[in-house]
Design brief:
Layout: H1 6-13, H2 26-33, H3 41-54, H4 59-75, H5 80-93, H6 100-123, H7 128-133, H8 140-143, H9 156-161, E1 165-173, E2 181-185
Helix pairs in contact: 1-3, 3-4, 4-5, 5-6
Length: about 200
């Protein structure tokens, strides 16, 4: 089965449910928006994108799901590019929604931050966190070994939770032998919806 990437899922997220679609039970919908113990924001986003694709959401729920996806990307999933694009999808499909004004402000903030991030990437040294924030998750591995490349242990959750890096691997990260973790690029990109938690991050 071909694994759907986050970029493809984002395109799906912009699709509008069929007019007149029945709303999902509100209590169930809220559990998807705010899981009890979310360990992976990319998994939450992938699940919300599946719900949007299913057509089970009302227009209001669709807009709120898009807003939460964008909020997750911007705040805890560290992908400003997808945050900005998802806010754009919300504004394009639901310009009159109550969240539209906040979505526009958040989109503008994300784009401002992207300006700074892209300037740093152009100037160097290149940091893994900036590549991820700019949506260049696939480029992180190719930068290992390059002079000045900055990679921190705090970058691990995002790389693992998006399905780009897995344990075990040939690369170690961490300041001491006891804290180092062996990870590396996955042999095949994993679907975030199937990554609730990873031993490497315990």
């Amino acid at each position: 089965m071909k694994i759907r990437t986050l970029a493809a899922a984002l395109t799906i997220a912009g699709a509008v449910a069929a007019p007149g679609a029945l709303a999902m039970d509100e209590a169930a919908f809220k559990k998807e928006i705010w899981p009890a113990n979310p360990s992976n924001p990319h998994q939450v986003n992938a699940r919300l994108q599946q719900l949007i694709e299913s057509g089970e959401l009302s227009d209001d729920q669709h807009a709120r799901a898009l807003f939460q996806i964008a909020l997750n990307f911007g705040a805890v999933a560290h992908d400003r590019t997808r945050a900005a694009k998802t806010y754009e999808a919300l504004l394009a499909h639901f310009p009159g929604h109550a969240l539209a004004e906040k979505a526009a402000a958040n989109r503008d903030y994300a784009n401002t931050q992207l300006g700074y991030i892209r300037a740093r990437l152009k100037k160097g040294p290149v940091e893994a966190a900036d590549l991820m924030a700019n949506g260049q998750w696939a480029d992180v591995a190719s930068h290992f070994g390059k002079p000045g490349f900055v990679f921190l242990e705090s970058d691990l959750p995002g790389l693992c939770y998006t399905g780009w890096f897995c344990e075990p691997g040939m690369m170690t990260a961490g300041p001491t032998n006891t804290e180092q973790k062996a990870i590396g690029p996955c042999s095949a990109k994993q679907d975030p919806v199937n990554i609730p938690a990873l031993k490497i991050l315990d």
